[in-house]
Structure formats: structure tokens, C-alpha cells
Amino acid sequence: MRRGHGGGVHDELRRWRNAQDVHIRDDVEDFLIGPVGRDTELWHVRQFHAADLGFSYNHHACGDAPVIGTGRFLRGLASNQRGGAILEFALIAPLLFSLVLGTIDVGRMFYVRQGLEYATEQAARYYALNPNTASTAVTTYLQSQMPGGMGPGVAVAYTDTTNCNLNPGLTCTMVAASYTFSFVAGFLGLGSKTLQAKAQAVRWI
Known about the structure:
This protein is an alpha+beta fold. It is built from 5 helices and 7 strands; from the N terminus they run αββαββαααβββ. The protein has 2 domains: 9-79; 84-204, no CATH class. The strands form 3 sheets. A 3-stranded antiparallel sheet has the order 5-6-7, with helices on one face. The protein has a two-stranded antiparallel sheet with strand order 1-2. Strands 3-4 form a two-stranded antiparallel sheet. Helix 4 (84-129) runs antiparallel to helix 5.
């Protein structure tokens, strides 16, 4: 039991029969109380007024030896804020990680969309420069222009318009490419999105 200077506990403790069972250190006054078998008057600690002691006691907590606990421990425990930051982080971490993953996925989608547009325009240009080539060759060329090895996932469709611009020697071919983009953060309910790009090839046949 620990109490500061000026307390009223000294006199009561000094009245006990076995003074050797009570050790008082004057600086912070540590009271080391011996087993109850040595001094039965230890059980009369309840006679001290709670207002004077500022402590609580439990004479059954540790078997034969009474335990005088401090109320300051409970008050300190109630006001202890250590670990609060960890708890706050645990609450906001799921939302924070979801926002980060969602932002990364949206950035990836725009990257793929831009790559699809570039590949489609390059394929239309290739078709215009090689008007008699097979459409399968154009599709292969378009897929080779896709970034990140995503070419095999691109589907290509062709729509021919003869007499383009009222010129019977011209054929306008619309090259339409599509790619199904899958979001990594599927738990956000974003699912997948079909990206599309179109470019026209004017061919002289």
C-alpha cells in the first residue's frame, strides 16, 4: 500500500502488535504488511475511513494475506487512452483501403481505355494503307498494339460502307474494338465494364 506524506495511516499501523510486519519508507511510504497469521489486527484495516486512506481493500483476494489495492489504479485505468489510435485505425482501415483500391482500379480502367483507342486508330490506319488485306490481319495488328499484353482479350468488328462520300471507288470501314475490363476490387460491387473504341478506315479499292 502506498501513500504520500501527511496521511493518517502511520499512527494506526504503528499500533499493531508486530511492528516488524510493517515497513515504512519515508520518501513515498510503502507499507509492506505481513501475513494475517502474524497479526490478526490486520483485519481491522476496515476501521480506517475511506476518505483518510484513499484506498480500497480485499482481504480474500490472495488467500491468507489481505490485499490493500489502490483506487487510483481504477481511476487511472478508466482514464488510460493508450491503444486508442490502434482502435481508431481498425475502424477506418476498411474504408481507407477500399478507397485506395477503388482509385487504383479506376486509374487502370482509363489506362486500358486509352490503350484501346490508340490500338483501334492504328488498326484503321493500317487498313487504309493496306486496303486489300484481310480483316483477320487487321485484327491481329490491332491486338498487337494493345498495352500490357491485353490484345487477346480484344474483340474487333468491321462495318463496310460502299460509295463512301459519294465516291464509288471508296469503301469506308468502321473498325469497332471492345474489351471487357474487370475490376480488382470486386468486393466494392464494381464488377466489370465493357470498353469500346471506334475508328474509320477509308480504303480505295
